[in-house]
């Protein structure tokens, strides 16, 4: 497909899926429950962390997370202590359990109390054209505190060739300026042009059929290839095409 035809096709699909009706069936509905910046960030980060598997179950368990936190995630994180651990006891989403949940709350507390919050960490470690090195730095900071090694698997590391799908989705939510009202765009210090597509089975398969990627694996190298090609189509807002790739794969079985 010629480049101009591909752009028109993808833009049409973005218009179809990048609208408020998308929210009702997507995990992004969880951070949309909140209006305070820090509540949105923490709800989004925790929701993105468990965003694998059945979407209905993801949304159900993310709601459960928020309920455990008294539907006040930032307040819960900042005031969390060992006396609150038992509140997490029954939480589980696939391989993410109460031990992992406890570490994530403590790590987020450390992030906000000692490192000026999530936005500052990503802002500080962004490069000229990428946020992937910043994800690696986030993981280092996240696991500075005492933790079980098992929990480390729940944050991906692009330097180890991971496509880091869930954190890239979280970053899209926080950074992308979205006139349609789906993504939040509440982080002003990072440009949307640096975002990477949340690459998974669905978006990867569609991207291959459209000639946007050639590699078979869904890894960091493939993500770089996808970034390059999407930025050639729209250098200002390349990750908007996540809506097209995801919608074509999940809803249209393209």
Question: What does this 3D model show about the protein?
Answer:
It is a single chain. The protein is 51% helix and 2% strand. The protein is mostly helical and 254 residues long. It has a two-stranded antiparallel ribbon with strand order 1-2. Helix 2 runs antiparallel to helix 8. The longest helix is centred in the middle third of the chain and has 17 residues, at 98-114. The chain is globular.
Beta-strand content estimate: under 5%
What global shape is seen? globular
Overall residue-averaged pLDDT value: 96
Helix amount: 40-55%
Kindly name the structural category: mainly alpha
CA radius of gyration: 18 Å
Order of helices and strands: HHHHEEHHHHHHH
Largest sheet: 2 strands, antiparallel
Q: Give the spatial strand order of the biggest sheet.
A: 1-2
Task: Give the strand tally.
Answer: 2
Name the poorly predicted regions: none
Total helical elements? 11
Gap between N and C termini, in Å?
15 Å
Task: Describe how the helices and strands are arranged.
Elements: H1 3-17, H2 37-49, H3 55-68, H4 73-79, E1 92-93, E2 96-97, H5 98-114, H6 117-125, H7 132-142, H8 165-175, H9 201-209, H10 220-233, H11 241-250
Antiparallel strand pairs: 1-2
Helix pairs in contact: 1-11, 2-8, 4-5, 6-7, 9-11
What labels describe this entry?
mainly alpha, 2% strand, single chain, 254 residues, two-stranded antiparallel ribbon
């Amino acid at each position: 497909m010629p480049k101009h035809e591909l752009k028109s096709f993808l833009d049409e699909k973005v218009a179809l899926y990048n609208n408020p009706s998308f929210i009702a069936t997507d995990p992004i509905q969880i951070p949309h429950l909140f209006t305070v910046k820090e509540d949105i960030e923490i709800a989004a980060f925790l929701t993105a962390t468990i965003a694998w598997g059945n979407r209905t179950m993801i949304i159900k368990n993310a709601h459960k997370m928020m309920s455990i936190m008294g539907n006040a995630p930032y307040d819960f994180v900042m005031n969390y202590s060992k006396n609150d651990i038992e509140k997490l006891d029954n939480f589980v989403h696939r391989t993410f359990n109460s031990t992992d949940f406890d570490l994530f709350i403590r790590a987020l507390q450390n992030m906000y109390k000692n490192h000026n919050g999530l936005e500052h960490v990503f802002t500080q470690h962004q490069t000229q054209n990428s946020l992937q090195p910043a994800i690696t730095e986030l993981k280092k900071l996240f696991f500075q505190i005492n933790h079980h090694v098992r929990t480390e698997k729940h944050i991906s590391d692009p330097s180890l060739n991971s496509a880091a799908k869930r954190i890239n989705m979280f970053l899209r939510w926080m950074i992308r300026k979205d006139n349609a009202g789906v993504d939040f765009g509440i982080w002003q210090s990072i440009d949307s042009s640096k975002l990477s597509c949340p690459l998974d089975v669905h978006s990867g398969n569609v991207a291959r059929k459209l000639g946007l990627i050639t590699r078979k694996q869904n890894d960091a190298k493939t993500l770089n290839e996808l970034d390059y090609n999407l930025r050639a189509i729209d250098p200002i807002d390349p990750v908007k095409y996540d809506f097209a790739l995801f919608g074509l794969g999940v809803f249209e079985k393209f």
